[in-house]
Amino acid sequence: MARDDLGALAARLGRRLIAMEQPILARHGVSMWAYVVLNGLAGGEVRTQAALATSIGADKTRLIPVLDDLQDRGLITREPDPGDRRARLLGLTGSGRELHRAVQAEIRDAEDRLMAELPASDRDAFLRTLSALAG
């Protein structure tokens, strides 16, 4: 049986997910990259800008305007690293954590509606497989 390449299938799913998430992000006044940053910092540990850029797959120079905006809005903190004054440590503020939780809850609800298109027996297997392949 012929099928599309995995890249083509993943790209179509990616476009569908982005289209689903854009209105949610717009309602909360955050860009996709801003949400990616909030998500990357949501684990709670303080991280350097360079480590964050690596973990989310972003060019650290292009990340700076996103960080500036989030800091100006009081959603993240960015302080000099006491161990390396050239580096900056990042963290979520209470407002940043609250915004992240609200956006993530709406995105997860939308994902649940999308996943409802699959038979219940396939949902967990899909998520496990996707996590393994993306890992």
Summary tags:
single chain; 135 residues; alpha+beta; Arc Repressor Mutant, subunit A; three-stranded antiparallel sheet; 6 helices; elongated
Give the % helix: 55-70%
Kindly, what is the distance between the CA atoms of the first and last residues, rounded to a whole number of angstroms?
28 Å
Radius of gyration over alpha carbons? 17 Å
What is the number of beta strands?
A: 3
Query: Main sheet, how many strands, which sense, barrel?
Result: 3 strands, antiparallel
Number of helices, counting only DSSP H or I runs of 4 residues or more: 6
CATH topology: Arc Repressor Mutant, subunit A
Q: Approximately what portion of the residues adopt beta-strand conformation?
A: 5-15%
Assign the CATH superfamily. Answer: Winged helix-like DNA-binding domain superfamily/Winged helix DNA-binding domain
Helix/strand class = alpha+beta
Give average pLDDT, whole number: 92
> Low-confidence spans: pLDDT under 50, at least 5 residues?
none
Sequence of strands across the biggest β-sheet:
1-3-2
Second-tier CATH architecture = Orthogonal Bundle
Question: Any idea what the shape is?
Answer: elongated
The top-level CATH class is Mainly Alpha
- The helix/strand order is HHEHHEEHH
The tally of structural domains comes to: 1
Pfam families: MarR_2 (PF12802)
GO molecular function: DNA-binding transcription factor activity
GO biological process, one term: response to stress
InterPro entries: HTH_MarR-typ, MarR/SlyA-like, WH-like_DNA-bd_sf, WH_DNA-bd_sf
